[in-house]
Hints:
The complex is a heterodimer.
Chain A: E1 5-7, E2 10-13, E3 19-24, E4 31-38, E5 42-50, E6 53-56, E7 65-71, E8 74-79, E9 88-95, E10 98-100, E11 106-108, E12 112-113, E13 117-121
Chain B: E1 4-7, E2 10-14, E3 19-25, E4 29-37, E5 44-49, E6 55-58, E7 61-65, E8 71-76, E9 85-93, E10 99-100, E11 104-109
Parallel strand pairs in B: 2-11
Antiparallel strand pairs in B: 1-3, 3-8, 4-5, 4-9, 6-7, 7-8, 9-10, 9-11
Amino acid sequence: DAGVIQSPRHEVTEMGQEVTLRCKPISGHNSLFWYRQTMMRGLELLIYFNNNVPIDDSGMPEDRFSAKMPNASFSTLKIQPSEPRDSAVYFCASSPLGQITSGGLISTDTQYFGPGTRLTVL
Amino acid sequence: GQQVMQIPQYQHVQEGEDFTTYCNSSTTLSNIQWYKQRPGGHPVFLIQLVKSGEVKKQKRLTFQFGEAKKNSSLHITATQTTDVGTYFCAATGTASKLTFGTGTRLQVTL
């Protein structure tokens, strides 16, 4: 298996531009997660999907961020407009077993991370 | 919400010395996972603990889950330069999603 695939690996853009990050999860995994990692804030969960449905987007910083999962093999994270404070490494991860527990929350099996996209907003 | 704290934030050891990182939660956990992230890399799953008091070993690494299922530790015996990286715990509460700890960055020098 190729593992989780992310593109692009590096993205440099100017403030105000739209940025789209892409992720292909491992085939057969039913949960997908988007994380952001910075030195100051560590690893932050932005949003996760279970069977292509967004379950919890409470980690999305603001309305400039949006994520979609149109099918089981593809997801996007979009930032519009981008700002310098969005500069970070964005990871996508997939998990083979995720389930809804009480309150619509989810427990999960091992997460397999992609190589990440290093985003720099000038 | 659930909070997961790791200590220390950073540790620098000489090769051959032991290393331990601790993960503490404010709530009872269903399970806990440990991940390692090499510099410039992505988090890689190491192990999952589920049972109270569980201890698992992987070569020089020993993982422990507390009796009350609120804390966990990772101990590395006789560190090597290949152990360099950041170690994260990731905990799932009884009714909450997987939450990553703040991480412990390990530096090993000769």
